[in-house]
């Protein structure tokens, strides 16, 4: 399927005008198609690594639970997920850096193309990442829910046997679904969000720096790459800070403590990076405006995680209310669940809207050209939100690893006290999986403005006339 889409992209770019005189239509078509395939490969590899890592940690989690070692069991789940999260983010950054280096050497160093036009040539990588993420997230998500519901209907409802009972062959499909849906799907989804956000922000930064006649355009171009490279560092510190204090402390509290540590280091790193890379004599105060945008994004991500936790954690009123409604029958369970689900979308919408307004205002008052600086401010806020993506992905991957570890414990006939350890972690894993989905959706909502403006910037380059308002050229 990717091969067909790659050929279509080649044909489209072959018959459209080139965005720069240094690159012919044929060269642009080949480059875009090649970068599309590279994005597909890296995105698919990110999903595969997620599954590869989780299936090897599952059995170790079951062994730790069998030894009644709760702390080791917890750390196995979390750090197993962290491994694949780190590799996924590293591949995303490495792929974009390699592609940028190749384009810079060929077209800037040898052909004399202006450096601010380079990021536009990387768009195919984002196409490829999005294409594979679409299939992994949809196909994996549908598979895992179908397998989960099917296994529960056959086992729990028809035969009245426990969940993950070895007598139910559908359990195998359920365990596989946890990996392909919650590991591969989420890994590819966040990979796509990061890739699209990096390339979109590079295009915006290059356009803004060129328009404002900034002395160092490449600093604005490389800014998103440096920020996401810091993600590996700050999230790594947060991951190391996750240390369980025993079964008396809820697992989610332990992870959120590490997340706060990662956020603190992210704020410090963001301020330092913006001061070093975005300071310009054209607008001396712009760097701290964009630092504020990044901090807004970091706070937004934390609020989205907390909101999701409130609506999905079994210790809070919404889940307790659904459980209470279930005592009356199936109908009240469905009504209560749907109403809570619809209610849970309100606060994230408000938080994202406020974040967009604040970041856009900070951008427009930075001293750089108005609308472009405002949209770049929303892009920096998106970067702030995604600059702890590795840690959030680690929390996401915690869920399916704990779930599969519990399944192995059940199928191997272990005692009830051992299953209690994995059940506690599995319940928390459902919350962390939901939190990462809210996080990914929030990041995509912020990034859509970045991608739309990046599209307008490319059109402006193509027709050699700038946009001031949508639907109006001057």
What does this 3D model show about the protein?
51% of the residues are buried. The protein contains 14 helices and 2 strands. The longest helix has 48 residues, at 416-463. It is mainly α and 474 residues long. Helix 3 runs antiparallel to helix 6 (217-241), helix 5 (170-212) packs antiparallel against helix 13 and helix 12 packs antiparallel against helix 14. It has helices spanning 2-14, 25-66, 70-109, 123-159, 170-212, 217-241, 251-277, 286-312, 317-326, 330-343, 346-364, 370-386, 389-411, 416-463; strands at 467-469, 472-473.
Report mean pLDDT, rounded to a whole number.
84
Q: Rounded to an integer, what's the Rg over CA atoms? A: 24 Å
Give the helix proportion (percent range). over 70%
- Which structural category fits the helices and strands? mainly alpha
Strand order of the largest sheet: 1-2
Dominant shape: globular
Report the sheet with the most strands, covering strand number, pairing sense and barrel closure: 2 strands, antiparallel
Number of strands: 2
Fold blueprint:
Elements (H helix, E strand, L loop, with lengths): L1 H13 L10 H42 L3 H40 L13 H37 L10 H43 L4 H25 L9 H27 L8 H27 L4 H10 L3 H14 L2 H19 L5 H17 L2 H23 L4 H48 L3 E3 L2 E2 L1
Antiparallel strand pairs: 1-2
Helix pairs in contact: 1-2, 2-3, 2-4, 2-5, 2-13, 2-14, 3-5, 3-6, 3-13, 4-5, 5-6, 5-12, 5-13, 5-14, 6-7, 6-12, 6-13, 7-8, 8-11, 8-12, 8-14, 9-10, 11-12, 12-14, 13-14
Record keyword descriptors for this entry.
mainly alpha; 14 helices; disordered C terminus
